[in-house]
């Protein structure tokens, strides 16, 4: 009896929730993109770790061996040696990969993640199963968003560690400042927010056009436009500080993000700096009494970061909400 019961008892089927099934199916379908993303993170992280350790040590040793750390370095110090070139190349490669990430994300989200599945009917097939359109789109956005934020913030942390640990080497290179586009974006939360905005804009483009190549192109153009507009708005996202100098001191020289410079008249009016070409008394004849500069000091880094991050996340949220509304209108009550 026991043996017969055991033989006739049906096996219990393993149940997989629809959400988990969507995630697993998506990871299998887009495993090439996943492996590419993991490879990009590994390469960028490896470059930053190398630059932070042996790369920086070799570059600084080369710099000091040339006597460039002395009070009066010779002209040869303007031309770094091979060790310094390798260090700069590693940092440039890592920074370039992080800055390229939003473009790649937008192109992939528009072309492969959404539009291709709508174009070949894979999405419609998934909607007829246990997962509806809304759950399908949520999984399509949530999984890449988690991977993008995790990887980008990891690279941001490593870049900040590099920026903090190699101050002596960075100071002698002279051309890198906290407000430079590449440095500013990667040293804070902006890079991750740009990636999320790219994902949302790409998904929206894919739903709007439902064809891979047009959606890819529109997503890239939309992201380039967004990055340009946000970059133009950046200096105006937080109140500036102002410094005023006399005519004898000349125009202010600041190691900061300069927003505006000009001249002041006796009434306090702001006017452009006249083209005097060194002519004595030219400023006085034009009624100029002082020079001024509106600028952001280094202490404004995080206020500017958070304001720009909030702006990018607002764009991402708006694009995501629009995508869900569009999907609901196209699929009706099945959402």
From TrEMBL:
The keyword Ribonucleoprotein does not apply. The chain crosses the membrane at residues 34-53, 90-115, 136-163, 183-206, 213-231, 309-327. Keywords: Membrane, Transmembrane, Transmembrane helix. Coiled coil: none annotated. It comes from the Bacteria. This is ABC transporter permease. It comes from Streptomyces tibetensis.
